[in-house]
Amino acid sequence: MYWSKLLVLALAQFVLASPHARRWDDLAVKHSWTEIPEGWVYHSAPSPSRLLDLRIGMKSHKMDDLITQLYEVSDPKHPKYGQYLSKEEVDALSAPHPDSVEAVEAWLQHHGVNPDEAIDRSGGGDWITLRIPVSVAERMLDTKYGVYHHLKSEDYIVRALSYSLPRELHSHINLVTPTTYFGTIRAMKSNSFVNPDIQVSKEAFVEDVNAPAALPPASCATTVTPACLKAFYNITGFSPVNPASQRIGIAGYLEEFGNRADLQTFLNQLLPASRGFTYTTTLINGGEDDQNDPGVEANLDIQYVVGMAAPIPVTYYSTGGRPPFIPDSTQSTNTNEPYLDWVNFVLAQSTIPTVFTTSYGENEQTIPLDYRQSVCDLFAKLTARGSTILFSSGDSGVGGGDCRTNDGRNRVQFQPAFPASCPFVTAVGGTTGLTETTIGFSGGGFSNTFARPAYQDTAVSRYLQILGNTNAGLFNTTGRAYPDLSAQANRFEVFVGGRAISVGGTSARNVQTVAGIVALINDVRISNGKGVLGFLNPLIYSDGVTGFNDIVTGSNPGCGTNGFPARAGWDPATGLGTPDFAKLRLLLG
Ligand SMILES: *[C@@H]1O[C@H](CO)[C@@H](O)[C@H](O)[C@H]1NC(C)=O
Ligand SMILES: *[C@@H]1O[C@H](CO)[C@@H](O)[C@H](O)[C@H]1NC(C)=O
Fold first, then answer.
1. How far is the CA of 582 from the centre of ligand 2 (A)?
2. Which is nearest to 159 in space by CA: 342, 31, 340, 59?
3. Ligand 2 within 6 A of 583 CB?
4. Percent of the chain, pLDDT > 70?
5. Whose CA is nearest to atom 2 of ligand 1?
6. Which reaction does it catalyse (predicted)?
């Protein structure tokens, strides 16, 4: 009796202590939504044998070290300024701790998944992708996947409303996708709008490389062309002399294709000296390049980057196709995750563009917290390698729609935009007019995710003091504030399908202008034997960088308020202002 009781106790203890019985069954929720994300509806249960490309992002063991190094190489006062990290160095700092790898692989094996059969691994080993059936993913993540339908874009995706991980893995894994992030490139595509009632001016300002610099003519108030932008920003007459030393990358949309014939029409009409110049396309994850289906966004992005910076080479990255969705198919589902696909693709290249522009973005609160942090970390890795990464600050002022929070509390809050709110990218707001003023839709505000980085402490504290109680309670005073700078954002003349149209909405146009100017300053630096600018923010916020036209009028309304007013110095409507190339090249070239 006594002995058998002891034995039972011993057995019970053995069961409790057994790493396999307990380790992987002790789950804790990783992320969960209180409701289906806005714009999506449940459609059906996916076939259990449908394949998912499950991507696991492990914690980079030396991420803090990487951020420290990023700030050193980006701080103009630091001896290491401009000594960017190589792919190998970033990979080494991205690697997960061996304990993380051991734990994740043991967990995969427990579920019958062979980690050696990963279909993709990042250079640092921190991201691993496995092609597995939905039923296995559901067991691993203690979740139920559903097919969800986006009513506006008509996208279908396989996602979950919540997912869990063994408690032990929470300290090793940042993120598993696809799970609770419902974004797709099409669904989050910016609302670039064609101005149907605005005719592009017959007197559109055409570039004449032999003309002396002049003030922008009146036509630039109604029809913005590359020649206007060059006049606004004091670039007229400058031509890059080291084009082969750089490349500008444009991250493109799903099913948005640039059109080469339209680029030629644009150059013929507005920049005759650059006639014949073209760009390359890089296809990622089944991206396409359909020349019969020109997109407004893609054409605008390409035409204005080329318009500002030709003959510096330009690459358009076309990420991910959208195979027709067949509900009961077992084929691998389109698991494109807009940011993860292209950033991971680019990080895997040994040479990367010196300047990157991307036009998409969405409200922070629609993206799971861990996802925001993981993607922002990836941008840190990209900037550490010496790329300038530019994002539009958004098209909705301080927030579009009713601005209610989706945390179950339904409060009205300004809605910061991501990735603009990531402290490692440079966010670009919008202006308009011959005498530049804030354009009302210029996105701006304060992150609820990322704390204010030291580089903008002085500038932002100063603004908050001037602002006083305006908008108190509607935004987070401790968050990373944006935009960082701005540029013209409306009434751009773009050629689509051979025809000139007028396009507005901040995304892209302002970013492309700034991308061009950064590349031109890089060109001057290269001529002077210096490195490229890389991560701009620590530099442009530092004392003495006065190469911006301070925008002091207008505001960016939203959420039923007037938004933030532009003021002298940095403000969350137009940042530090618009770039003056002539001044910046003297200061930074
Ligand atoms: C405010 O921002 C900080 C980051 O600076 C964040 O940790 C905090 O959760 C935010 N507060 C709210 C209410 O979102
Ligand atoms: C830039 O152009 C403006 C006029 O558009 C002019 O007033 C200013 O002096 C120029 N800046 C430089 C540094 O040339």
1. 7
2. 31
3. yes
4. 88
5. 448
6. Release of an N-terminal tripeptide from a polypeptide
CA–CA distance, 523 with 436 (Å, rounded to integer)? 27
Identify the band that residue 10 occupies on the pLDDT scale cut at 50, 70 and 90.
very low
User: Of ligand 1's atoms, which has the minimum distance to the CA of residue 450?
Assistant: 4
Q: Which residues pair with 493 in a beta bridge?
A: 502
Neighbours of 214 (CB within 10 A): 10
Nearest alpha carbon to residue 256 among 219, 300, 214: 300
443 is in an annotated binding site: no
Q: Which ligand is nearest to the CA of 452?
A: 1
Determine whether the annotation assigns residue 39 to a binding site: no
Whether 393 and 427 have beta carbons less than 8 Å apart is answered as yes
- Does residue 165 sit in helix, strand or coil? strand
The partner residues of 28 in beta bridges, in order of sequence, read: 165
Identify the residue whose C-alpha is closest to ligand 2 atom 10.
Answer: 234
d(CA 96, CA 188): 31
What structural domains does the chain harbor? 20-188 (no CATH), 226-323+340-588 (3.40.50.200)
In order, the DSSP letters of 205-270 are ----TTSPP-PPPGGGGTSB-HHHHHHHTT-TT---S-GGG--EEEEPPTT-B--HHHHHHHHHHH
Pocket of ligand 1 (CB under 6 A): 448, 451, 476, 478-479
Ligand 2 in reach of 215 Cβ (< 6 A)? yes
| Number of the ligand 1 atom closest to the C-alpha atom of 447 | 2
Contacts (Cβ under 8 Å, ≥6 apart) of 572: 398, 444, 445, 446, 463, 481, 482, 483, 556, 564
Give the number of other CB atoms < 10 A from CB of residue 237. Answer: 13
**Would you say the CB of residue 436 lies under 6 angstroms from ligand 2?**
no
C-alpha of residue 480 to centroid of ligand 1, in Å: 10
Q: pLDDT, tens digit, for every residue of 436-483?
A: 999 999 999 999 999 999 999 999 999 999 999 999 999 999 999 999
Task: Return the structure tokens found at 6.
Answer: 């002891």
Q: How far is CA 452 from CA 169, 461, 477, in A?
A: 29, 10, 9
Ligand 2 atom index nearest CA of 583? 13
- What predicted TM-score, i.e. pTM, was given to this entire model? 0.92
Least-confidence region, from 78-92, 160-174, 258-272, 280-294: 280-294
Ligand 2 site, residue 582, Cβ cutoff 6 A: yes
How many whole angstroms from 365 Cα to the centroid of ligand 1?
A: 12
